Amino acid sequence: MKKFSKVLGFSLLSVLLVGCGGKAQGLAEKSTEVQSSSSSEVAEKIESPIEVKLNQGYFVLFNETKKEETKKERLVLELEVKNLVNNANFLNERKLALLNKATDEVIKTYVFKEFGSGVLQEKNEKATGALSFDVEEGAMYDLVYQVNDDWLSLNITVDPADYQDTKTTLEDPLTATNAYFNVLAFNEEDANYQKLVSNNLQNANTLHQNLFKDKVLGALFSRYKPDEATVLSMYQRFQAMEKKRATIVPTLISNDTEKAIVSLQFEIMSHQNIKDLFFEKSQEIGLATHWSGILEGKEEEATIPQFDEIMEQTVLVRREEPLVIELVKVEDKWEFDLNNENFQAIFYGGYRGK
């Protein structure tokens, strides 16, 4: 972190962008008190090539490691930069920072969104971007700009408390994930699906049901061809048993308001074990009725009524490592990647696991 050691007399309403920590040599304010330079001398030495406007601020959940224990909240400031010089202006994104008013420390700044190409070709040309900061609760900050070894006040006060309400939606990807599993894995109603999930419900349900038909029923039946009513009935029975026996725990890892990372830990039924038990049971039925010939060739169909009993006996499996998925913000809702085969497999017991 950087700390102020002297004050320069200067009034500045413009900025260049984001910095790193260390000792700050000066702060320009609307002050006539100057050390080593008069205000007029400073004004001659320092001319602002840009003007900056603070558009909005909001909190995000940042995480470098994708582990729950390393996630942290950061304050993002979206800025508009205007070129004030007649020639091309190359934006240096290491020149803007926040000064803690109480400690005079300059905190490190991170580039959150690039400012276009980084070059303002003409006078009055503008570019927008965003910076992020690790701010302290209860602290107040000044937006400052570094010129040489001096930090110049931009007369923009940043109070993180003004953006506390933006934290209320940070957990939305987690709520959306819970809703997705409630509706599509456990066949429950959840109002948060329509509120927070972007994926079309009918399309998603059709996808998971077809995968169940292909991966599970396709393995159970070699002779018997179930009709659509039977497929639906067995799928819903599978969902009900997963609700009873499975454990799915999502954890929010990060959320930058446009993309979110969620980690999934789960124990679910294994469709491979269901297949093995189903085959054993159908063989038992075949042997028990072989003398009569009544169920000859129909052993698979005759085993369907015992599907729940078989699932009760099925082992639960889990991944050795949590499954990490990415959600994308689409029109204020969260979209799941339904092409992710590892994610798909949760809904039909497609893990042999541990």
Question: What's the SSE blueprint?
Answer:
Blueprint: E1 2-3, E2 7-9, E3 27-29, H1 39-45, E4 50-62, E5 72-83, E6 89-90, E7 96-100, E8 105-107, E9 109-113, E10 119-120, E11 126-133, E12 141-147, E13 150-158, H2 172-184, H3 191-196, H4 201-220, H5 228-245, E14 247-255, E15 259-269, H6 271-289, H7 299-303, H8 307-313, E16 316-317, E17 323-330, E18 333-336, H9 341-346
Parallel strand pairs: 2-3, 3-13
Antiparallel strand pairs: 1-8, 4-5, 5-11, 6-10, 7-8, 7-12, 9-11, 12-13, 14-15, 15-16, 15-17, 17-18
Helix pairs in contact: 4-6, 5-8, 6-8
List keywords for this structure.
about 350 residues, alpha+beta, Immunoglobulin-like, five-stranded antiparallel β-sheet, 9 helices, about 30% strand, elongated, disordered N terminus
Q: How many structurally independent domains?
A: 2
Order of strands across the main sheet: 1-8-7-12-13-3-2
Q: Strand tally, please?
A: 18
Query: What is the element string, with H for helices and E for strands?
Result: EEEHEEEEEEEEEEHHHHEEHHHEEEH
| Global outline | elongated
Helix content: 25-40%
The main sheet comes to: 7 strands, mixed
- What portion of the residues fall into strands of 2 or more residues? 25-35%
Task: Briefly note the structural class of the backbone.
Answer: alpha+beta
Return the average pLDDT rounded to an integer.
Answer: 84
